[in-house]
């Protein structure tokens, strides 16, 4: 038998319209709203789940089979 370390990555995504004088300001405003929890992503914003095997380890069978 082997043990595997498997990483699960879940992606949530939402588009926000915001008024700003530049791209940088728009991004900064949205980041600030996100940090202040004015923008919260939930199961309705689900896009994808990816499973990746990161590591494999060989194990001795505990019962000696």
Number of alpha- plus pi-helical segments: 1
If strands are numbered along the chain, what order do they take across the biggest sheet?
1-2
Largest β sheet strand count, sense and barrel closure: 2 strands, antiparallel
Overall geometric form: elongated
The oligomerization state is: single chain
Strand content: 35-45%
Say how many strands there are.
Answer: 2
Q: What's the gyration radius in Å?
A: 21 Å
Structural class estimated from helices and strands? alpha+beta
Domain DpnD/PcfM-like C-terminal: 4-48
Protein name: DpnD/PcfM family protein
InterPro entries: DpnD/PcfM_C
Structure description:
- With 65 residues, this protein is an alpha+beta fold.
- It has one domain (2-58).
- 20% of the residues lie in helices and 37% in strands.
- Strands 1-2 form a two-stranded antiparallel ribbon.
- The chain has one helix at 23-35; strands spanning 2-12, 46-58.
- It is built from 1 helix and 2 strands, in the order βαβ.
Features:
single chain, 65 residues, alpha+beta, 1 helix, DpnD/PcfM_C, DpnD/PcfM family protein
SSE arrangement:
Elements: E1 2-12, H1 23-35, E2 46-58
Antiparallel strand pairs: 1-2
Question: What does this entry show, briefly?
Answer:
This protein has 65 residues and is α+β, with helices and mostly antiparallel strands.
């Amino acid at each position: 038998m082997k043990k595997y370390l498997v990483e699960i990555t879940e992606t949530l995504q939402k588009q926000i319209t915001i008024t700003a004088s530049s791209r940088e300001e728009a991004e900064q405003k949205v980041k600030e709203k996100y940090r202040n929890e004015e923008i919260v992503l939930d199961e309705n914003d689900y896009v994808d789940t990816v499973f990746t095997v990161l590591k494999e380890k060989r194990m001795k069978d505990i019962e000696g089979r």
